[in-house]
């Protein structure tokens, strides 16, 4: 079982205060971009890896998905998701997304938001997802951007010319990164954009879109503290198809 | 006509001293990776955008290409290329790679090494290359990596913890970057990985490979001064197909 930070009471309390936790998809600034990469939901069988509080599952069901299965390893998040979802089209399952015991070709869309940078072996994940998808099936996901996960000391610095800089290093050294995020000791798995893309291509996926998300000028006007995000994208969004 | 730094005597003299200028493909450490992304040359009609001294054109012809056309805006480089290439399968043309006056569907492979980060409009370039290629044709190229071209002050720094860092900023701000490279005032066009990839997809290309090149441990052992390159990839290599 991988690290389950989300059921740590301190982490859960902190995470629950985030805009995206309180407001769901509307509180996730990258959601409009990610949504634009999704196929029409009507009639789809959808698998959501790392479904958290179930915001996407509810949206997909409202948009006409035939069935949504959300998988997450956090009991607390699933309990809250279940309490908010009296929808017979949605099911939640407690489990490790790296060990999915699900039938072949059972889904038309696999979706994942900001979960896959926790898993160790993305190539194996792609092989599993290929198995779970129907021919022509979609895989759309977001992760923390590799530029964001790479550094030994991730945090803004000011250089000798007074410019704001993101202190990038170890970009090509893939592997775990232990950071403080809400609580100390959070382990993320850094991998390059090339590894994300080529792992998909190696499993027969066709890339349909790649986005390095940063806030729009309108979003920065509304949230001035996001202005630095233009220096390095916080999120990588990828759309792929079998 | 874009900036032609290569015919500046001082730049040309400096550039001519580079390992890759003196030794051709053998002096380009990313060449083995780029070569692995190419289709077999036998019988191909090849267009090389920014052919420089003609090292790739000679290699492609030796490997069985039916015809190679190299285009470059540097008279000095083409003069040297012509003097080294008494090969009837190779032709060189002085010109701007952003204004190619060539017939439709005349090539099976468009290749470009470290030239396309000088052009302003990569989307228009992709549209032109689609027009020049036959169905199923290949487009394989390398550029300076966007992490490399982005910063206002590109150069290694040491952070307060004594870590070597690449001072990344302005990654999401696309456009010209004026740097000192051999001579002052060299203008490169920064664009994101997403723009490179999505411009290809928008023109109907299928991505076949994406590499963020850095030196191998063997290459670092031979060239210890390359060790920092692991902190940020210097080159982005992309393979695509119609």
Polypeptide structure, described:
The structure is a homodimer of 242-residue chains. With 242 residues, chain A is of the alpha/beta class. Chain A has one domain: Rossmann fold, CATH 3.40.50. The first copy, chain A, is 28% helix and 30% strand. The first copy, chain A, contains 9 helices and 11 strands. Chain A has helices at 9-16, 19-23, 31-36, 55-62, 75-83, 122-132, 146-149, 193-202, 217-222; strands spanning 45-49, 67-72, 90-94, 107-113, 133-144, 157-158, 164-168, 175-181, 183-190, 206-213, 235-241. In chain A, the strands form 3 sheets. A 7-stranded mixed beta sheet of chain A has the order 3-2-1-4-5-11-10, sandwiched between helices. In chain A, α6 (122-132) packs parallel to α8 (193-202). The longest helix of chain A has 11 residues, at 122-132. At the A-B interface, β7, α8 and β10 of A face β7, α8 and β10 of B.
CATH architecture of chain A: 3-Layer(aba) Sandwich
* Helix content class of chain A: 25-40%
Could you describe the largest sheet of chain A, including whether it forms a barrel? 7 strands, mixed
N to C succession of SSEs of chain A: HHHEHEHEEHEHEEEEHEHE
For the secondary structure, the number of strands of chain A is 11
CATH names the topology of chain A as Rossmann fold
Largest interface: A-B, 38 and 38 residues
Q: How does the overall form of chain A come out from the CA principal axes?
A: globular
SS-based class of chain A: alpha/beta
Strand proportion of chain A: 25-35%
The CATH superfamily name of chain A is Vaccinia Virus protein VP39
Please, how many domains of chain A? 1
Multimeric organization? homodimer
Tell me the name of the CATH class of chain A.
Answer: Alpha Beta
């Amino acid at each position: 079982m991988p690290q389950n930070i989300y059921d740590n009471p301190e982490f859960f309390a902190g995470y629950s205060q985030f805009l995206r936790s309180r407001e769901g998809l509307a509180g996730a600034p990258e959601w409009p971009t990610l949504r634009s990469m999704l196929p029409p939901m009507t009639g789809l069988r959808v698998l959501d890896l790392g479904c958290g509080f179930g915001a996407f599952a509810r949206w997909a069901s409202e948009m006409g998905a035939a069935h949504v299965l959300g998988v997450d390893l956090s009991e607390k998040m699933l309990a809250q998701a279940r309490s908010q979802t009296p929808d017979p089209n949605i099911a939640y399952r407690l489990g490790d997304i790296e060990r999915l015991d699900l039938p072949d070709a059972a889904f038309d869309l696999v979706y994942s938001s900001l979960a896959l940078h926790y898993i160790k072996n993305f190539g194996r994940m792609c092989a599993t997802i290929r198995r779970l998808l129907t021919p022509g099936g979609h895989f759309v996901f977001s992760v923390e951007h590799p530029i964001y996960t790479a550094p030994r000391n991730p945090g803004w610095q000011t250089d000798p010319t007074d410019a704001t800089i993101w202190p990038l290093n170890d970009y090509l050294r893939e592997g775990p990164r232990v950071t403080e995020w809400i609580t100390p000791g959070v382990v993320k798995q850094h991998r390059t954009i090339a590894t994300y893309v080529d792992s998909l291509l190696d499993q027969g996926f066709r890339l349909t879109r790649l986005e390095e998300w940063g806030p729009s000028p309108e979003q920065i006007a509304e949230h001035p503290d996001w202005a630095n995000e233009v220096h390095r994208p916080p999120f990588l969004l990828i759309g792929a198809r079998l």
